[in-house]
């Protein structure tokens, strides 16, 4: 049985919701567009960067909740290739918070058997961050619990572009033929290689858009948009999204399961 007492105490609403979800209906990969930090701060008359600072606590508790719920893969969208367009001070603060998170939280990841991997154009980040990320990957490489991916300087289009470039390079070197390229080849050469496509994509703060996240991988992902602003997101909100997902009927272009055997 999952160790959920801390995130959903016995008798609580979250616990009841959790107990109503059949085990086989849990998502294997949850991806989250963490949005609404700026609005959270604005509501309180604070600068936007205070929203980002508060968002760290939401990251911490969501990672813990995903681990306790035994969700195999969690991917968080932290910084897009378009986010460089933000004011310089905001970008610097986001990078500083990332460094702080890596310094402070690495031991929690290690202790909780969490494996860590950044995805995105990591080589374009500042050297100190690259080192911090590489260290976190190394320190958690042997862990077997939650696989926690963080998307940094990431966008779906950049990822697909990099994959196409790699294909061209391999072809030029005579290591790849046209017939070798199928959907499985593409999936295996994306940043997310080795993980199943997300079953559930959550976006906080009510925005109904994808903003260049995991474009290839979300072809058949179920979407849950919550009005909760990212800094307020906690285990109860993750559980609510999982419960919503568990009630969905997925078709993948086919017919409802119950009608599969029907003769016409
Ligand atoms: C999400 O919050 C954090 C990042 C994109 C880095 P925002 O900063 O986008 O918050 P809003 O959307 O302005 O409220
Ligand atoms: C998406 O949020 C990127 C991240 C959460 C890192 P944005 O706030 O940047 O997206 P838009 O600009 O509202 O589409
Ligand atoms: Mg936003």
Automatic annotation (TrEMBL):
<feature type="binding site">
    <location>
        <position position="52"/>
    </location>
    <ligand>
        <name>substrate</name>
    </ligand>
</feature>
<feature type="binding site">
    <location>
        <begin position="80"/>
        <end position="82"/>
    </location>
    <ligand>
        <name>substrate</name>
    </ligand>
</feature>
<keyword id="KW-0479">Metal-binding</keyword>
<protein>
    <recommendedName>
        <fullName>Isoprenyl transferase</fullName>
        <ecNumber>2.5.1.-</ecNumber>
    </recommendedName>
</protein>
<dbReference type="InterPro" id="IPR001441">
    <property type="entry name" value="UPP_synth-like"/>
</dbReference>
<feature type="binding site">
    <location>
        <position position="84"/>
    </location>
    <ligand>
        <name>substrate</name>
    </ligand>
</feature>
<feature type="binding site">
    <location>
        <position position="203"/>
    </location>
    <ligand>
        <name>substrate</name>
    </ligand>
</feature>
<dbReference type="GO" id="GO:0045547">
    <property type="term" value="F:ditrans,polycis-polyprenyl diphosphate synthase [(2E,6E)-farnesyl diphosphate specific] activity"/>
</dbReference>
<dbReference type="Pfam" id="PF01255">
    <property type="entry name" value="Prenyltransf"/>
</dbReference>
<dbReference type="GO" id="GO:0016094">
    <property type="term" value="P:polyprenol biosynthetic process"/>
</dbReference>
<feature type="active site" description="Proton acceptor">
    <location>
        <position position="83"/>
    </location>
</feature>
<feature type="binding site">
    <location>
        <position position="86"/>
    </location>
    <ligand>
        <name>substrate</name>
    </ligand>
</feature>
<feature type="binding site">
    <location>
        <position position="222"/>
    </location>
    <ligand>
        <name>Mg(2+)</name>
    </ligand>
</feature>
<feature type="binding site">
    <location>
        <begin position="36"/>
        <end position="39"/>
    </location>
    <ligand>
        <name>substrate</name>
    </ligand>
</feature>
<comment type="similarity">
    <text>Belongs to the UPP synthase family.</text>
</comment>
<feature type="binding site">
    <location>
        <position position="48"/>
    </location>
    <ligand>
        <name>substrate</name>
    </ligand>
</feature>
<feature type="binding site">
    <location>
        <begin position="209"/>
        <end position="211"/>
    </location>
    <ligand>
        <name>substrate</name>
    </ligand>
</feature>
<keyword id="KW-0808">Transferase</keyword>
<dbReference type="InterPro" id="IPR018520">
    <property type="entry name" value="UPP_synth-like_CS"/>
</dbReference>
<dbReference type="InterPro" id="IPR036424">
    <property type="entry name" value="UPP_synth-like_sf"/>
</dbReference>
<comment type="subunit">
    <text>Homodimer.</text>
</comment>
<dbReference type="GO" id="GO:0000287">
    <property type="term" value="F:magnesium ion binding"/>
</dbReference>
<comment type="function">
    <text>Catalyzes the condensation of isopentenyl diphosphate (IPP) with allylic pyrophosphates generating different type of terpenoids.</text>
</comment>
<feature type="binding site">
    <location>
        <position position="40"/>
    </location>
    <ligand>
        <name>substrate</name>
    </ligand>
</feature>
<feature type="active site">
    <location>
        <position position="35"/>
    </location>
</feature>
<keyword id="KW-0460">Magnesium</keyword>
<feature type="binding site">
    <location>
        <position position="35"/>
    </location>
    <ligand>
        <name>Mg(2+)</name>
    </ligand>
</feature>
